[in-house]
Amino acid sequence: MSEKLLPFRKRHWLLKILNNSLYDLPCPVNLNAFWSFGSMLGLCIVIQMVSGILLSLHFIPHESMAFDSVYHIMRDVNKGWFLRNMHVGGCSMFFICLYVHIGRGIYYGSYMSRHVWFVGVTLFLMVMGEAFLGYSLPWGQMSFWGVTVISNLFTVIPYVSQNLLFTLWGHWSVSGYTLQRFFIFHFLLPFVIIVFSTLHMFFLHENGSNNPLGVNSDSMCVPFHPFYTVKDIFGFVCFGWVLMYLVCVNPELVVNKINYHPADPYHTPLQVEPEWYFLFAYAMLRSIPHKLGGVLALLASVLGLYLYPFIHTGKFRSLAFYPVSQMFFWCFVVNFLSLIWVGQMPVREPYITMGQVYTGVYFSTLILPPMLTGVWDKLIFYN
């Protein structure tokens, strides 16, 4: 066909790139609703970037004015309450979509595309760091003591822990210097996240998207538009309804009430706990009496995701063909939610013992689904 007869989007040098990467992108015909959560994560990044930049225009990263500047945003800035609730609620929605996205990748074997998976797990770590930095900025009681507790975990590093803490804090303890450093990191890190997100998409489009069956679908593809733009728009509408509930109806649902009190270094809260999306790791940390053991468990709970491409032993990618692995996967999901519940309970029995049990189950069910795929293959194909 003559180039002049092609649509403009296929002739213009820039639109041609966007067209091949999105509009006419070949996609497997059998993608289900769980694939829409990847698009929702892109929407989350946009929401957090825009609302964060607007909030930074009014926020003052100073230990004596940060808390009051947040109240100023909520009470005096035009639609400031909406912006802050959008930023806070958007963070919770970000992690909901992120956990579903990772769960989908585990269940359907998307981790076999190693470059996509490794960049994705690295993005997960960056987003967790970004959320922790943002949680410290209001400089309320839970923000201050959360920074104190988590940053002190660096003391398990031999020889360099004190120098590392001093560099992180900017002082001999958590102070206004720490707040300024965290604000700068919180402002800059999203741009690094965007770069890695672009790299994530590049590797995804280079190898092609996985599908629920985990089989080669080159001969069964449809254009992204209109087949999947419609699904993504429907997903955005559902996403918007939940987000607006968190913003306009019940913003307190995802906020720790103790953080409405200004930071007081002389008064420790009865229970220092992170936001709900970190509670699973916090439950592991406090369930192990030894500090170093708790930190190692904390790191292994996330870094263990890097091992998935190496421990998958089955002939098929998707767990849809492996009933035993499916059972352990759903045990992992239930156990993950149980850890979140235990993490918000007081540090006393029976919650300490329950946390230790759930921690053991977490690591067992984390590695068993991909490892058991090869065992199932041997049972099925045994001659």
Short note summarizing the structure:
It comes from Perna canaliculus. With 383 residues, this protein is an all-alpha fold.
Question: What can you tell me about this protein's structure?
Answer:
It is a multi-pass membrane protein. Residues 214-383 form the Cytochrome b/b6 C-terminal region profile domain. The chain crosses the membrane at residues 40-61, 81-103, 115-137, 143-161, 182-203, 233-255, 292-311, 323-343, 355-376. With 383 residues, the protein is mainly α. It has 2 domains: 19-272, Up-down Bundle (Cytochrome Bc1 Complex, Chain C), CATH 1.20.810; 274-382, Helix Hairpins, CATH 1.10.287. Helix content is 66%, strand content 2%. The chain has 15 helices and 2 strands. Helix 5 (80-107) packs across helix 10. The longest helix is centred in the middle third of the chain and has 32 residues, at 176-207. The protein is globular, with a radius of gyration of 23 Å. The N and C termini lie far apart (54 Å).
